[in-house]
Amino acid sequence: MKNNVKITRMKTSMTQEQLARKVGVTRQTIGLIEKGEYNPSLQLCVAIAEELNKTLDELFWEVEV
Amino acid sequence: MKNNVKITRMKTSMTQEQLARKVGVTRQTIGLIEKGEYNPSLQLCVAIAEELNKTLDELFWEVEV
DNA sequence: ATAGTATGTAATATATAAATTGCATATGCA
DNA sequence: TGCATATGCAATTTATATATTACATACTAT
After folding, report:
1. What residue ranges do the domains of chain B occupy?
2. Is B19 helix (H, G, I), strand (E, B) or coil?
3. Which fold, B5-60?
4. Spacing of B14 CA from C18 C1' in Å
């Protein structure tokens, strides 16, 4: 599940740990999602999008490899 | 997790069973997602969106109650 | 009436997302 | 040099999405 979470988070100068706390998961979960090796739940995707001021599509839709 | 899956599926005259087969889950899973009682995985959301010719945002983003 | 289709729902089982813990490396700073 | 921060990664545990099976109702057509 390739996505734009990592690049978007880094643009905001937020750490994995900070994003994780904001959306209520652990740092490891954010790390694995950014790596594209996880298939996160819709709720978590929405929480991450809201925290990064993006929409679902911007982070998770048709992300080019 | 309120969403627009049910209304969109019905517009296409597709049954829950047909959509379920196309995206590789069971009828019950589609039923629960439409009911808003499930927190589906991102992969499944993407599969449903593609099958219904919609984007993630159109089906799952800021859906009014 | 009655058979088929579409849907709702519930109980239990299974697969996997996510948590937890721990250890590693790289980097920046005192 | 040594300490704190940020990240990667792996093993095990826990929570939950999804499958399976089953039974129910409503509707349509025969």
Report:
1. 5-60
2. helix
3. 434 Repressor (Amino-terminal Domain) (1.10.260)
4. 34
Q: Residue B64's pLDDT is what?
A: 61
- Interface confidence, given as ipTM, is 0.90
Query: What ranges make up the beta strands (E) of chain A?
Result: none
Which phi and psi (to 5°) does residue B14 adopt? Answer: -100, 145
Q: Give residue for tokens 């991102």.
A: B42
Which one of A39, A41, A60 has the shortest CB-CB distance to B56? Answer: A60
Query: Which 5-44 positions of A have CB less than 7 A from strand C?
Result: 24-26, 28-29, 33, 38-41, 44
Token output for A5: 């979470």
pLDDT in tens, B42-53: 999 999 999 999
